[in-house]
Amino acid sequence: xxxxxxxxxxALQALVIGAIALGMVAIAIVAGVDLIATSExxxxxxxxxEAVTVQGEQIRDLYTIVFLIAVAIFFLVExxxxxxxxxxxRRPEDVTLPxxxxxxxxxxxxxxxxxxxxxxxxxxxxxxxxNTVEVVSADPQTRVKAVAGQFQWTFEYLDASGxxxxxxxxxxxxxDGGLVLPAGRTVQLSLESPDVIHAxxxxxxxxxxxxxxxxxxxxxxxxxxxxAGQTFRGQCAELCGAGHRLMLFDVxxxxxxxxxxxxxxxxxEANASPPPAPSGAPSGAPSGxxxxxxxxxxxxxxxxxxxxxxxxxxxxxxxxxxxxFDNQDPTIPHNVAIHEGSPTGPEVFKGEIFPGPAKKTYxxxxxxxxAYAFICTVHPSMTGTLTVN
Length: 389
Description:
30% of the residues lie in helices and 28% in strands. The protein is of the alpha+beta class. It has three domains: 11-90 and 106-133, Helix Hairpins (Orthogonal Bundle), CATH 1.10.287; 142-271, Sandwich (Immunoglobulin-like), CATH 2.60.40; 298-388, Cupredoxins -  blue copper proteins (Immunoglobulin-like).
Protein backbone atom coordinates (compact mmCIF):
# COMPACT_ATOMS: atom_id res chain seq x y z
CA UNK A 1 0.00 0.00 0.00
CA UNK A 2 1.47 3.32 -1.05
CA UNK A 3 1.97 6.00 1.59
CA UNK A 4 0.36 9.45 1.12
CA UNK A 5 2.45 12.04 -0.73
CA UNK A 6 4.97 13.91 1.44
CA UNK A 7 3.45 17.33 0.66
CA UNK A 8 0.04 16.02 1.69
CA UNK A 9 1.39 14.85 5.03
CA UNK A 10 3.01 18.22 5.70
CA ALA A 11 -0.24 20.01 4.91
CA LEU A 12 -2.15 17.70 7.27
CA GLN A 13 0.34 18.33 10.06
CA ALA A 14 0.08 22.09 9.54
CA LEU A 15 -3.71 21.85 9.78
CA VAL A 16 -3.49 19.87 13.03
CA ILE A 17 -1.09 22.39 14.57
CA GLY A 18 -3.29 25.29 13.44
CA ALA A 19 -6.39 23.63 14.90
CA ILE A 20 -4.64 23.12 18.24
CA ALA A 21 -3.55 26.78 18.31
CA LEU A 22 -7.07 28.01 17.48
CA GLY A 23 -8.49 25.73 20.16
CA MET A 24 -6.15 27.17 22.79
CA VAL A 25 -7.10 30.72 21.77
CA ALA A 26 -10.80 29.85 21.98
CA ILE A 27 -10.34 28.35 25.47
CA ALA A 28 -8.50 31.48 26.62
CA ILE A 29 -11.29 33.74 25.30
CA VAL A 30 -13.98 31.66 26.99
CA ALA A 31 -11.99 31.77 30.24
CA GLY A 32 -12.05 35.56 30.08
CA VAL A 33 -8.35 36.09 29.33
CA ASP A 34 -7.61 39.49 27.77
CA LEU A 35 -5.34 38.31 24.97
CA ILE A 36 -4.32 41.80 23.87
CA ALA A 37 -3.37 42.93 27.39
CA THR A 38 -1.62 39.63 28.05
CA SER A 39 0.37 39.94 24.83
CA GLU A 40 1.34 43.51 25.71
CA UNK A 41 2.53 42.42 29.14
CA UNK A 42 4.60 39.61 27.63
CA UNK A 43 6.23 41.93 25.08
CA UNK A 44 6.74 44.68 27.69
CA UNK A 45 8.32 42.17 30.06
CA UNK A 46 11.01 41.50 27.46
CA UNK A 47 12.00 45.17 27.47
CA UNK A 48 13.57 47.37 30.16
CA UNK A 49 11.44 50.17 31.69
CA GLU A 50 10.77 53.34 29.76
CA ALA A 51 13.86 55.53 30.09
CA VAL A 52 13.44 58.92 31.81
CA THR A 53 16.93 60.23 31.07
CA VAL A 54 18.66 61.21 27.84
CA GLN A 55 21.36 58.64 28.51
CA GLY A 56 18.78 55.97 29.34
CA GLU A 57 17.04 56.51 26.00
CA GLN A 58 20.31 55.84 24.19
CA ILE A 59 20.82 52.67 26.21
CA ARG A 60 17.26 51.57 25.39
CA ASP A 61 17.83 52.20 21.68
CA LEU A 62 20.90 49.97 21.85
CA TYR A 63 18.88 47.30 23.65
CA THR A 64 16.20 47.46 20.95
CA ILE A 65 18.73 46.86 18.17
CA VAL A 66 20.34 43.93 20.01
CA PHE A 67 16.92 42.51 20.89
CA LEU A 68 15.64 42.63 17.29
CA ILE A 69 18.80 40.95 15.99
CA ALA A 70 18.45 38.24 18.65
CA VAL A 71 14.77 37.71 17.78
CA ALA A 72 15.58 37.39 14.06
CA ILE A 73 18.35 34.86 14.76
CA PHE A 74 16.10 32.91 17.16
CA PHE A 75 13.25 32.52 14.66
CA LEU A 76 15.64 31.74 11.80
CA VAL A 77 17.45 29.02 13.76
CA GLU A 78 14.31 27.55 15.34
CA UNK A 79 12.51 27.64 11.99
CA UNK A 80 15.34 25.79 10.28
CA UNK A 81 15.41 23.22 13.09
CA UNK A 82 11.67 22.58 12.83
CA UNK A 83 11.78 22.46 9.04
CA UNK A 84 14.70 19.99 9.14
CA UNK A 85 12.98 17.78 11.72
CA UNK A 86 9.76 17.64 9.71
CA UNK A 87 11.29 17.53 6.25
CA UNK A 88 13.99 14.94 6.86
CA UNK A 89 12.55 12.76 9.60
CA ARG A 90 12.86 9.02 9.14
CA ARG A 91 9.87 7.25 7.56
CA PRO A 92 8.90 3.56 7.43
CA GLU A 93 10.14 3.21 3.89
CA ASP A 94 13.55 4.66 4.78
CA VAL A 95 15.60 1.50 5.29
CA THR A 96 19.01 2.86 4.25
CA LEU A 97 21.01 5.88 5.19
CA PRO A 98 20.59 8.91 2.91
CA UNK A 99 23.51 10.27 0.96
CA UNK A 100 26.07 11.78 3.33
CA UNK A 101 27.57 15.22 2.71
CA UNK A 102 31.07 15.93 4.02
CA UNK A 103 32.03 19.59 3.98
CA UNK A 104 30.30 22.50 2.30
CA UNK A 105 32.47 25.50 1.55
CA UNK A 106 29.54 27.88 1.03
CA UNK A 107 27.84 26.89 4.31
CA UNK A 108 31.09 27.21 6.25
CA UNK A 109 31.80 30.65 4.82
CA UNK A 110 28.26 31.81 5.60
CA UNK A 111 28.22 30.63 9.24
CA UNK A 112 31.67 32.18 9.78
CA UNK A 113 31.30 35.52 7.98
CA UNK A 114 27.71 36.36 9.02
CA UNK A 115 28.26 35.97 12.80
CA UNK A 116 31.53 37.91 12.48
CA UNK A 117 29.74 40.80 10.79
CA UNK A 118 26.96 40.75 13.40
CA UNK A 119 29.43 40.78 16.30
CA UNK A 120 31.45 43.59 14.67
CA UNK A 121 28.29 45.64 14.16
CA UNK A 122 27.20 45.11 17.77
CA UNK A 123 30.69 46.07 18.96
CA UNK A 124 30.64 49.35 17.03
CA UNK A 125 27.18 50.49 18.16
CA UNK A 126 27.85 49.41 21.77
CA UNK A 127 31.14 51.32 21.78
CA UNK A 128 29.43 54.43 20.41
CA UNK A 129 26.66 54.25 23.03
CA UNK A 130 29.16 53.64 25.83
CA ASN A 131 31.26 56.64 24.79
CA THR A 132 28.15 58.84 24.73
CA VAL A 133 26.80 57.66 28.09
CA GLU A 134 30.22 57.87 29.79
CA VAL A 135 30.81 61.53 28.87
CA VAL A 136 31.54 63.69 31.94
CA SER A 137 31.55 67.43 31.36
CA ALA A 138 33.95 69.84 33.06
CA ASP A 139 31.18 72.25 34.05
CA PRO A 140 27.91 70.44 34.83
CA GLN A 141 24.85 72.46 35.84
CA THR A 142 24.28 70.51 39.08
CA ARG A 143 26.67 68.53 41.26
CA VAL A 144 25.55 65.96 43.83
CA LYS A 145 27.53 63.44 45.85
CA ALA A 146 25.81 60.17 46.82
CA VAL A 147 27.42 58.46 49.81
CA ALA A 148 26.53 54.80 50.32
CA GLY A 149 27.31 53.27 53.72
CA GLN A 150 26.12 50.22 55.59
CA PHE A 151 23.17 50.59 55.38
CA GLN A 152 22.24 54.11 54.41
CA TRP A 153 22.24 56.56 51.50
CA THR A 154 23.00 60.23 52.10
CA PHE A 155 23.07 62.91 49.41
CA GLU A 156 25.34 65.95 49.52
CA TYR A 157 24.53 68.92 47.28
CA LEU A 158 27.70 70.65 46.12
CA ASP A 159 28.46 74.17 44.95
CA ALA A 160 29.51 75.03 41.39
CA SER A 161 33.13 74.10 42.09
CA GLY A 162 32.18 70.68 43.45
CA UNK A 163 34.45 71.27 46.47
CA UNK A 164 31.96 72.45 49.10
CA UNK A 165 28.75 70.89 50.43
CA UNK A 166 25.87 73.37 50.68
CA UNK A 167 23.24 70.93 51.93
CA UNK A 168 23.17 67.31 53.10
CA UNK A 169 20.05 65.18 52.76
CA UNK A 170 20.04 62.46 55.42
CA UNK A 171 16.63 61.00 54.60
CA UNK A 172 16.95 58.62 51.62
CA UNK A 173 13.23 58.34 50.86
CA UNK A 174 9.83 59.92 51.39
CA UNK A 175 8.29 63.27 50.53
CA ASP A 176 10.76 65.13 52.76
CA GLY A 177 13.72 62.95 51.79
CA GLY A 178 15.35 61.31 48.83
CA LEU A 179 17.50 62.59 46.00
CA VAL A 180 15.98 65.70 44.41
CA LEU A 181 17.20 66.49 40.89
CA PRO A 182 16.28 69.15 38.31
CA ALA A 183 14.78 67.86 35.06
CA GLY A 184 16.27 69.23 31.87
CA ARG A 185 19.67 69.96 33.44
CA THR A 186 22.94 68.07 33.34
CA VAL A 187 23.46 66.46 36.76
CA GLN A 188 26.86 65.10 37.73
CA LEU A 189 26.69 62.41 40.40
CA SER A 190 29.77 61.41 42.40
CA LEU A 191 29.61 58.10 44.24
CA GLU A 192 31.54 57.36 47.44
CA SER A 193 31.57 54.53 49.99
CA PRO A 194 33.27 54.56 53.42
CA ASP A 195 33.00 50.78 53.95
CA VAL A 196 32.16 48.10 51.35
CA ILE A 197 31.11 47.92 47.70
CA HIS A 198 27.59 49.19 46.99
CA ALA A 199 25.84 50.04 43.71
CA UNK A 200 23.71 52.99 42.61
CA UNK A 201 20.78 51.72 40.56
CA UNK A 202 17.58 53.39 39.37
CA UNK A 203 15.69 51.05 36.99
CA UNK A 204 14.17 53.90 34.94
CA UNK A 205 17.64 55.39 34.39
CA UNK A 206 18.66 52.07 32.74
CA UNK A 207 22.01 52.54 34.43
CA UNK A 208 23.95 50.98 37.32
CA UNK A 209 27.29 52.09 38.72
CA UNK A 210 29.27 50.48 41.54
CA UNK A 211 30.23 52.50 44.61
CA UNK A 212 33.74 51.34 45.51
CA UNK A 213 35.64 52.21 48.72
CA UNK A 214 38.68 54.39 48.04
CA UNK A 215 37.44 55.36 44.58
CA UNK A 216 35.12 58.13 43.39
CA UNK A 217 32.97 57.05 40.45
CA UNK A 218 31.42 59.90 38.48
CA UNK A 219 28.70 59.90 35.85
CA UNK A 220 26.14 62.32 34.44
CA UNK A 221 22.43 62.12 33.73
CA UNK A 222 19.87 64.48 32.26
CA UNK A 223 16.28 63.74 33.25
CA UNK A 224 13.78 64.53 30.49
CA UNK A 225 11.88 67.76 31.10
CA UNK A 226 8.53 66.05 30.53
CA UNK A 227 9.27 63.73 33.48
CA ALA A 228 9.43 66.57 36.00
CA GLY A 229 7.12 65.94 38.95
CA GLN A 230 7.69 62.18 38.99
CA THR A 231 9.33 60.05 41.67
CA PHE A 232 11.55 57.10 40.77
CA ARG A 233 12.68 54.29 43.05
CA GLY A 234 16.34 53.50 43.51
CA GLN A 235 18.30 50.90 45.43
CA CYS A 236 21.67 49.43 46.18
CA ALA A 237 22.14 46.64 43.64
CA GLU A 238 25.21 45.06 45.26
CA LEU A 239 24.84 42.70 48.23
CA CYS A 240 26.55 44.73 50.95
CA GLY A 241 25.65 42.94 54.18
CA ALA A 242 22.77 41.94 56.41
CA GLY A 243 21.02 45.31 56.03
CA HIS A 244 21.25 45.42 52.22
CA ARG A 245 17.44 45.38 51.90
CA LEU A 246 17.27 48.73 53.73
CA MET A 247 19.32 50.60 51.13
CA LEU A 248 16.43 52.06 49.16
CA PHE A 249 16.05 55.66 48.04
CA ASP A 250 13.71 57.92 46.08
CA VAL A 251 14.59 60.23 43.21
CA UNK A 252 12.30 63.25 42.88
CA UNK A 253 12.43 65.05 39.53
CA UNK A 254 11.61 68.77 39.85
CA UNK A 255 11.22 71.48 37.27
CA UNK A 256 14.37 73.68 37.31
CA UNK A 257 12.64 76.63 39.01
CA UNK A 258 11.10 74.35 41.65
CA UNK A 259 14.46 72.70 42.25
CA UNK A 260 16.21 76.05 42.75
CA UNK A 261 13.51 77.14 45.22
CA UNK A 262 13.74 73.82 47.08
CA UNK A 263 17.52 73.94 47.39
CA UNK A 264 17.51 77.59 48.51
CA UNK A 265 14.96 76.73 51.20
CA UNK A 266 16.98 73.73 52.42
CA UNK A 267 20.17 75.79 52.56
CA UNK A 268 18.37 78.52 54.50
CA GLU A 269 16.96 75.96 56.95
CA ALA A 270 20.38 74.37 57.44
CA ASN A 271 21.96 77.77 58.11
CA ALA A 272 19.15 78.97 60.38
CA SER A 273 20.06 79.74 63.99
CA PRO A 274 18.53 78.48 66.18
CA PRO A 275 17.44 75.41 64.20
CA PRO A 276 13.72 74.98 63.57
CA ALA A 277 11.71 73.28 66.32
CA PRO A 278 10.93 69.58 65.90
CA SER A 279 7.37 68.71 64.96
CA GLY A 280 5.12 68.58 68.01
CA ALA A 281 7.45 70.77 70.11
CA PRO A 282 6.55 74.31 71.18
CA SER A 283 8.09 77.20 69.29
CA GLY A 284 11.70 77.75 70.27
CA ALA A 285 12.18 74.23 71.68
CA PRO A 286 15.57 72.73 70.76
CA SER A 287 15.67 69.79 68.37
CA GLY A 288 18.58 68.10 70.09
CA UNK A 289 21.55 68.74 72.32
CA UNK A 290 21.68 69.79 75.96
CA UNK A 291 20.38 73.25 76.80
CA UNK A 292 20.16 74.10 80.48
CA UNK A 293 19.09 71.89 83.37
CA UNK A 294 17.16 68.70 82.61
CA UNK A 295 13.41 69.08 82.35
CA UNK A 296 11.87 65.97 83.92
CA UNK A 297 13.30 62.43 83.83
CA UNK A 298 15.81 61.32 81.18
CA UNK A 299 15.25 58.15 79.16
CA UNK A 300 18.32 56.44 77.67
CA UNK A 301 17.99 55.04 74.14
CA UNK A 302 20.77 53.51 72.05
CA UNK A 303 20.83 52.79 68.31
CA UNK A 304 23.14 49.96 67.32
CA UNK A 305 23.09 47.64 64.29
CA UNK A 306 19.90 49.32 63.05
CA UNK A 307 17.95 48.55 66.23
CA UNK A 308 16.89 50.44 69.34
CA UNK A 309 17.84 49.36 72.86
CA UNK A 310 15.70 49.24 74.90
CA UNK A 311 12.53 48.86 72.87
CA UNK A 312 10.13 49.70 75.71
CA UNK A 313 10.11 53.04 77.56
CA UNK A 314 7.92 54.73 80.16
CA UNK A 315 7.44 58.46 80.79
CA UNK A 316 5.21 60.57 83.08
CA UNK A 317 2.02 62.04 81.64
CA UNK A 318 1.60 65.81 81.18
CA UNK A 319 5.22 66.51 82.08
CA UNK A 320 8.28 67.23 79.93
CA UNK A 321 11.06 64.68 79.77
CA UNK A 322 14.34 64.07 77.97
CA UNK A 323 15.66 61.34 75.74
CA UNK A 324 19.41 60.75 75.90
CA PHE A 325 20.01 59.27 72.48
CA ASP A 326 23.27 57.46 71.71
CA ASN A 327 23.73 56.67 68.02
CA GLN A 328 26.46 54.01 67.90
CA ASP A 329 26.11 53.13 64.19
CA PRO A 330 29.14 54.70 62.44
CA THR A 331 28.21 57.07 59.56
CA ILE A 332 24.55 56.00 59.71
CA PRO A 333 22.06 58.76 60.59
CA HIS A 334 19.34 58.01 63.13
CA ASN A 335 16.93 59.92 65.34
CA VAL A 336 14.05 59.29 67.72
CA ALA A 337 10.56 60.33 66.62
CA ILE A 338 7.43 59.69 68.70
CA HIS A 339 4.15 58.70 67.04
CA GLU A 340 0.77 58.46 68.67
CA GLY A 341 -0.63 54.94 69.01
CA SER A 342 1.56 53.10 66.51
CA PRO A 343 4.64 53.63 64.30
CA THR A 344 2.34 54.84 61.53
CA GLY A 345 0.24 57.08 63.76
CA PRO A 346 0.42 60.89 63.91
CA GLU A 347 3.87 62.24 64.68
CA VAL A 348 3.96 64.21 67.96
CA PHE A 349 7.71 64.69 68.29
CA LYS A 350 10.69 64.44 65.96
CA GLY A 351 14.27 64.62 67.19
CA GLU A 352 17.16 65.84 65.08
CA ILE A 353 18.66 63.33 62.66
CA PHE A 354 22.42 62.88 62.96
CA PRO A 355 25.02 60.29 61.93
CA GLY A 356 26.89 58.20 64.46
CA PRO A 357 28.82 57.67 66.50
CA ALA A 358 27.42 60.64 68.41
CA LYS A 359 25.05 61.53 71.23
CA LYS A 360 22.28 64.09 71.60
CA THR A 361 19.67 64.89 74.20
CA TYR A 362 16.14 65.59 73.03
CA UNK A 363 13.74 67.75 75.03
CA UNK A 364 10.30 66.20 74.63
CA UNK A 365 7.25 68.36 75.47
CA UNK A 366 4.50 67.06 77.80
CA UNK A 367 2.43 64.23 76.36
CA UNK A 368 -1.02 63.09 77.54
CA UNK A 369 -1.35 59.61 79.00
CA UNK A 370 -1.58 56.86 76.43
CA ALA A 371 0.31 54.43 74.22
CA TYR A 372 2.94 55.73 71.80
CA ALA A 373 5.58 54.31 69.49
CA PHE A 374 9.06 55.68 68.89
CA ILE A 375 10.78 55.13 65.55
CA CYS A 376 13.78 56.21 63.52
CA THR A 377 12.54 58.54 60.78
CA VAL A 378 15.33 57.37 58.46
CA HIS A 379 14.78 53.65 59.17
CA PRO A 380 11.08 53.10 59.99
CA SER A 381 11.79 49.43 60.73
CA MET A 382 13.54 50.59 63.92
CA THR A 383 10.67 50.82 66.43
CA GLY A 384 9.90 50.69 70.14
CA THR A 385 6.98 51.39 72.47
CA LEU A 386 6.53 54.34 74.83
CA THR A 387 3.96 54.18 77.60
CA VAL A 388 2.97 57.53 79.07
CA ASN A 389 1.11 57.31 82.40
